[in-house]
Amino acid sequence: MLRSTISKRSYSSNKNVLSTTITTTTTTSKRFLKSVSISQASLSTDEVGSSAGNKDYNYTKFFTDLKSYESGLKRSYKKLPNTSVHYSSPNDDIYRSLNSRIIVKQWSLLEACISTKDYLRAQFILDGLYNLCCDNKSDLSSFLDGINQYLASWSIDENVSMDDLSKWMVDVKSKYPLLVPNDRTFAILINSSINKSKQNQNDVLNNDFIHFILEYKKSSNTESLKEVLKHLDIFGLENVRYLKNHYNISFDEIPRELHEFFEALKGNNIPIENINKKIIEKNLKINDEEEKEEKEEIISAIKADVKSLEQDGVGKNLNTTSTEYFANDDIEIPTLRKDSETLKGVDTFGLKVIRHSLLGLTSKNKLQMLKDFQERLGSNEILPSSITMYTNTKNDELLKNDIDFYHIYRTLQNGKQREVFDAVLEEFNLERQRSLEVRSIDAASEKWKHTYEMLAKNNIMTNHDKNINYYLYKWYVQAVELVKEEVQNCKNLKEFEKSKNLTPEQEAQHKDREIYGPYLTLVSPEKMSTICILELLKVNAASNISSGVRTARSVLSVGRAVELEYRAQELLKSENDIYKTYRSIKKTSEFKKLVTKSTDEKFRKLLNRAKKDLSNNQFTWSPDIRAKVGSVLISLLLQVAKIQVNGTDPTTNKKVTGEVPAFYHSYQYVSGSRIGVIRFHPDFEKKLTKEDMNSAIAPQGLPMLVKPRPWENYNSGGYLYSSNQILRSKDSIEQQEYLKAVSEKGLINSIYQGLNVLGDTAWTVNERLFKIIVKVWNTGEPYLEIPGIVSEPQYPPPPPRDVDPSIRRKWKVEVQNLANEFSKNRSLRCDANYKLEIARAFLGEKIYFPHNLDFRGRAYPLSPHFNHLGNDLSRSLLIFWKGKELGEGGLDWLKVHLSNLFGFDKVPLEDRINFVNENMENLKDSVMDPLNGKGWWKKADKPWQALSTMFEIYEATQLPDPSKYLSHQPVHQDGTCNGLQHYAALGGDIEGAKQVNLAPSDRPQDVYSYVAGLVQKRVDLDAANGVEDAIKVQDKIKRKVVKQTVMTSVYGVTFVGAKEQIARQLVDHFPDELDLKFASEYLARQVFASIRELFEAAHLIQDWLAESAKRITKSVSLDVGETDAEFLSSVIWTTPLGLPIVQPYRSMGKKQVHTNLQTVYITDPFAITPVDSRKQMAAFPPNFIHSLDACHMLLSAVKCNEANLDFASVHDSYWTHACDIDKMNEILRKTFISLHEVDLIAKLKDEFDRRYKGFLQVISISKKTEVAKKIIELRKELSAKKGAPITSSDELHLERERQALLKSDDLEKQKMGQQMITTISLIENEDLSTLKSKTTSDTLKVFAPFKLDPIPSKGDFDVKGIKDSTYFFS
Asked: Which residues form a coiled coil (predicted)?
């Protein structure tokens, strides 16, 4: 992965540069690179070779000096602790230290020490990090972030005086001479001085304070404190105002977001302290008290939520207590009081947890929210009855249901009312969103406790065998004590060190605690115990229960969950004075008179900025730390996790009861390897169902009630209280570094804008569709794609023991198929149940879906269970929150959309509209009686979405003027095999472009039917010539037979894959497996040939992309460095929107980590590992196309937002309101044209030529060629001069020496380089295409300069013609 280059400290300052050697591995190409050991810097031309005046290069001296040089490197291995390294290419100027693994681990350890206030150890870590970071500008910037993080915590310690702060500033300059404190550093120092002045009751600024201000102004060469004061997460409101009153700062120096606030205070002269002093003081409590209060609030909320729901009669049993639904599997958990029928849930623990988590949506202070809305509007506005029925009533029963905010919004009478309502609702939902994201962990342990106490109180402990929560709480209580003890041991390490009589086991444990101890103290034992239990249940739910869960996966999962909880805690703490004070005082009557409605949004932006600063200072825990933390917690849990089981005494035959481990650690063999697993006891397995329990521990995965945190940085955006990365990257440091580099340079702002547009699109749940689906669901019968309830699979009776073996095998196959079908249907029903439960909880709510990207740039919602990327059922349940009048053409677009949902989309738009017009009676019947009528809607390809659309069409047509109908239905515009559209634009294929609707046409073209026609012609010709396979399939070629293969050809489907796709379509025609095999193979060849015929230029581009990837991944850099000469270069390219795409396919290295449970082998993201050339080559063409369609979508999103359109997408399907389809279509065409007006392939080649310039590729040439004979002869001569066989490493050294001479400013040295002969110089001017070998025995592997083939010629299609294509997207 990593490529070494000369240290930024420079070769000239230390000629003995750090280098190591690593043994190479196998494969044909790797064997050529065997025994390579290359220094990371070129040998100096002043040191190596004969004098510049010599005519012949002195190879003997070269090898002598090289041997001495390498010996010196080994001797000086530890002299230079830091060197810069590059990734796939030195030409990208993206460097990291060879000590990256150490640095990252030290950063996270520093963060842990700061959080636990171990400042002494933190200072030692900082000293060490400075030595490792001082050579790298990027690392030095991170070091300054670490300094600021340390200072922000240390400076507020009560034992730190103002003199200490001044002394610290002096010490920093002395200890870290290359470090330049920034505005945040001074913000921390100034703020701490203010606070210490207040603590001393000294209201006059002292000299230290002034000193810091003057020091800042001097270092920054400015008289303004504007940049310092922008760090409101440091100062808060109080100290900004303190500065304004006590120091001569101008109003312009105050952040713009606070101008309105301070203007209001200035005009009224009301001190903040007098607005509501008690509330402010309450919000400024120390963190421990805040956590305690928050926990109490959660407990109260659980009790209050459940109690109110029980009183309302919700649930199966009116007398059910707040805990019985967890104690008894026969009792359903209460659900939110909605104007909807309650769902009959799948009886699973996971579902109970998600229902409980959703109780966080209970609307508190909802009546006050409506009154605030009234007050903000003013008395002149006439409000609809949907609001006054609540605000004017004294009927408590009316307020028992959750308020349907969507219904209220629809009844508002003008734009002003809707705008104000949206603003008030956003403010109201902020607290609800906070509760929804952070309640899960504490709520889980509390509900276990209630379960246990209820069982004890009612003396029904015998029911434990029916209940999971009984055990979970028992384990939780016992585990908490063990975790507390372990945490205390970690805190007492210094006392432990004084003991001299330690056993080897104790010493090993002590060393381990030094590693994981600081991390184990970051989260409370209660939360860690809960996390460990829930995370084990989660990984078990996603695994094969019978074979257990791999230990490595379990420990990493638990460790990561603890890290995420710590991150969430830190984000909560970031809501400091800047927001907490405002959130409290804004509710007071005095403050409401001062500040306008826009202030709250401004404060939200300030809060987001504070969280962004926090995200920038976060360092991910290394995998070995996660593994150690996870293993400690799991090992402690294993000690207490016991269940009672019933059995029969083999001696007495009496029934007995005993305790056994619920899960245990053991080993098993997989593919010959011994791996550790966590196994669950069979009795405990029965209490769990194999389903996704993610929502049990990650409520952040639910839709949001407020706009997501905007993406402004690569690691800050999305949910409010969890740390999210913009890129879904798995163990690829290289991807993260490239992303970080472009983000810091501001090169991907368009990416951020596009994702923010997607996240800011407001949705709501389609209530009328939901009510219909619930009625179907609650019958338990199968309906469309919803499986029915089947309690147990019905297996056929087993055959007699003496039956024929073939019959028994047939019975086993039948039983296995039935078991698989049962498992599949139950899984589908559980998945549907999750979606419906979430949908029900969000009825009437305004919701959002934050998005991030996969490594190719494609956008996905962060909410995994319920979103618009789901199936037909999920999509039908979502509509736009904002409604828009249909306008002139909106009704027709609704009809086109409905026709498309029926699959009637290969005809002109007029025919699609007529299709709906002709079926208006069927449509009316479907709307009036969807479940008992004729059921025309069920004939649609996507029936649930079709029914949703029918409701709007029917309602619009009932109005005197349908154009005035307020539509909320998303209308889709889909591309025609979008991947082929991009290929056709790239290749300029005229006929191909026409068939995928890039060219104007009076009716939509169907590329699948066209290819089927081409295949038919080929088959007819073969059949006429007597080809047997052609005769057999001649009458079986239909559109559906070729569709999937045509669709996936652009994404790199293999011949085997295409054969299987076609076989699935032909299976009914060929019952004989052998006939099916030959027929599908024959047709697969014909389909591929027909696609190539239609998209000839596009396929030449596809071939060029694959060949380019092959050459890149089979090449090496001249400065390959201290690694072995493995192929380390990934295929990397930049999208038109500036996003770097790094293909992550490598032979991932494994790292051995010793844990409390066992030694585990985990992926080491810092390991220097070779690329997987086969995967890189196969994946590049489809990934490149995916990156283009992602750019088109994000660019369209930004432009649609600029045009005030609501926008959503599912990759190449773009959604907006019916009235805006024409506008969106115009934008889609313009953005596609702007994307492809540039020759993207030529641009890609230029980027590759720059990135991989100077690389050498390994090629095979014929030994019979003249150049091969010369290379063989030169190798013999060089071996003789070296006194040993020359290696490929030697060849690279020589070529690097030649290049250094050629690039010298000394003309004599240039001449010497020109005279120098290497194996590469012999071949660099040859036409490589004439040197290819025809047989393996005739092959000679050599290095040759990296060179790509010329790009294929482009066809004559003009992409600008797309603007006139009606059916490009339709």
From this structure: 272-312
Those residues whose C-beta lies under 8 Å from the C-beta of residue 424, and which sit 6 or more positions away, are 369, 372, 373, 376
Confidence at residue 692, expressed as pLDDT on a 0 to 100 scale: 35
CB 231 within 8 A of CB 183: yes
CA distance 811 to 814: 5
Looking at the chain, the number of H-run helices and the number of E-run strands are 56, 26
State both tokens at 1026. Answer: 């007597």
For residues 517 and 632, what is the distance between their CA atoms, to the nearest angstrom?
Answer: 10
E strand or H helix that includes residue 668:
strand 663-670
Region 960-980: mean pLDDT is 93
Among 1172, 1212, 1220, 1290, which one carries the catalytic annotation? 1212
Q: Look up the pTM and report it.
A: 0.79
The angle, 0 to 180 degrees and rounded to 10, between the axes of the packed helices 183-199 and 207-220 is: 170
For residue 1258, the cross-strand partners are 1343
**Tens of pLDDT, residues 457-490:** 555 444 444 467 677 788 888 899 999 999 988 8
Distance between start and end Cα atoms, the chain: 44
Cβ-count burial 914-935 (b if 16+ within 10 Å, e if not): ebbeebeebbbbbbeebeeeee
Retrieve residue 506's tokens. Answer: 């104790």
Closest Cα to residue 567, out of 682, 429, 715?
715
For residue 549, the cross-strand partners are: 678
For residue 417, pLDDT over 80 is answered with yes
CA distances from 28 to 36, 1114, 1262 (A): 15, 11, 16
Question: Tokens representing 1159?
Answer: 């030694």
CA quadruple 800, 804, 810, 813: dihedral sign: positive
Strand-pair category, 966-967 with 971-974: unpaired
pLDDT in tens, 921-932: 999 999 999 999
Q: How far apart are CA 179 and CA 302, in angstroms?
A: 50
Find the catalytic residue in 312, 422, 974, 1239.
Answer: 974
The angle at the Cα of 1141, spanning 1136 to 1144, to the nearest 5 degrees, equals 165
Distances (CA, A) of 1158 to 86, 105, 1154: 35, 21, 6
Q: Which of 538, 687, 1043, 1114 is catalytic?
A: 1043
- Max Cα-Cα span within the chain: 106
d(CA 406, CA 1368): 35
1043 is known as an active-site residue: yes
- Cα 375 off chain centre by: 42
Pairing of β 663-670 and β 763-765? unpaired
Summarised one tens digit per residue, pLDDT across range 643-692 is 888 777 778 888 888 888 888 888 777 666 777 888 877 777 666 543 33
Confidence of residue 1136 (pLDDT cuts 50, 70, 90): very high
Looking at the predicted structure, is the pLDDT value of residue 1086 above 50?
A: yes
3-class SS at 807?
A: helix
DSSP summary character for residue 938: G
Q: pLDDT per residue over 1210-1257, tens digit each?
A: 988 999 999 999 999 999 999 999 999 999 999 999 999 999 998 998
* Alpha carbons 1000 and 333: distance in angstroms, whole number: 57
Question: What does the block give as tokens for 833?
Answer: 């149940």
Q: Identify the band that residue 1106 occupies on the pLDDT scale cut at 50, 70 and 90.
A: very high
DSSP state of 786: B
What DSSP character marks residue 745? T
Does the annotation count 1022 as an active-site position? Answer: no
Answer whether 736's CB lies under 8 Å from 729's CB.
yes
Q: Are 1196 and 1231 in contact (CB under 8 A)?
A: yes
d(CA 500, CA 491): 19
**Beta carbons within 8 Å of 452's beta carbon, 6+ residues apart:** 469, 470, 473, 474
What are the backbone angles phi and psi of residue 717, rounded to the nearest 5°?
170, 175
